[in-house]
């Protein structure tokens, strides 16, 4: 009988070892799944951060372009007024003319209302690259100075 009991104990031991091995395999699979999910989340977070920074950079660049365009438009307007007024009383009256000439009725300017200007700027910004805008502005500056 001792052989039957020994065989039974060995089988029972093997069964418990097999259960332990199965538990370890399942635990490892769970750990692998968790690690995989963590890696995916980390990659997703990195991609989201890159996307957000790209959007912020694009917004900042667009704002800078708008500021440059506004500055160039102001400079062009002043140059035109100075050229008109050079024979009269100089720069001071050109500034006065600029303020009075720009205002018409209901807050509209001589070049159109603010909404039209904004639309023109947005069209210009969306249609042109940075270098194209700089080239156009340089051409404008050159044509006015000549």
Lay out the secondary structure.
Elements: H1 2-85, H2 91-102, H3 114-127, H4 130-145
Helix pairs in contact: 1-2, 1-4
Notes on the structure:
This protein has 146 residues and is mostly helical. The chain is built from 4 helices and no strands. The longest helix has 84 residues, at 2-85. The chain is rod-shaped. The termini are far apart. 1% of the residues are buried.
Approximate helicity band? over 70%
Poorly predicted runs: 90-110
Termini gap: 118 Å
Mean pLDDT: 72
Number of helices: 4
Give a short account of the largest sheet: none
Strand content: under 5%
Shape: rod-shaped
> How many domains, in number, for the residues?
1
Structural class by secondary-structure content: mainly alpha
> How large is the radius of gyration?
37 Å
Concise overview:
The protein is mostly helical. Helices cover 86% and strands 0% of the residues. 1% of the residues are buried.
For the structure shown, list the relevant keywords.
mainly alpha, 4 helices, 86% helix, 146 residues, rod-shaped
